[in-house]
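Late entry, written up from scratch paper. The run itself happened at the end of the previous shift, but nothing got recorded in the book at the time, so transcribing now.
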Amino acid sequence: MSEFRYSLNSSTIKPQPILKKIAIAAEAGYEAIELWHMDIDAHLETGGSLSDIRKAVDDAGLAVPTTIHIHGWFQPAGEEHRRAMDEARRKLEQSAAVGAPYAVAGPPHGVCDRELGAQHYHELLELGREFGVKPAMEYLGFVEEFKTIEDALDIINRCDHPDACIVIDPFHCYAGGGPIESIGKLKAAQIAVSHFNDAPAEPEPSTQRDPDRVMPGDGAINLKLYCDKLREIDYDGFLSLELFREDLWQQDPLEVAKLGLEKMRAAAEA
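Output as recorded:
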């Protein structure tokens, strides 16, 4: 049976500065932490360095599964695309500096040109090879067209690149209407990381957004099925607690992180 590893997505304790987030993740008992580029940039803007972050991660004994996120790469053309790729290069350099093997690449929010998006994803993957970082596509359950595992697989197949991979997430399966069973269409190596969370039964799933997420086991998603499907494809990578709740951000971040890890284990190991 595949054994999962547990990571903290730093969005879960968002108000904290990045070095404190790293320390909290380690103290709470996680093996890893996902870092956001906005937090990295905030650290740099106050006089910090990328080496500070890498040292904090290494000293804490943590892995960094991904950095989050690269956007705007999917379908703009011309000068807009060039600027998007320049920004992607900057972020991929950060990913490599902090030790992340993957960088989350967000999808378009409106109508999308999949052929152009696949071409640009191939280009983004080639750029990632310069830094030893794989950009991983993320589907989002609340966007117009790119909301299911099948949507992400379509781009993987179209782009025809050996490094193509995705981020999966039970909340986005639930909100986007894609069946959890679609995990069975993936190979374990195609999954950069699995975000992990739950969602309430109400409001209607398609109307839910990031702040609606709840702790694993506190909602209506069949997380046992989700984890069973991951085990069936021999996925033994990270489950990463990703929440965006104002009420949690107001609480003691260490206690939130500890509770999250407890609930993740209870849901994943049931």
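Residues 198 and 218 are 7 Å apart (CA to CA).
(Scratch paper discarded after transcription.)
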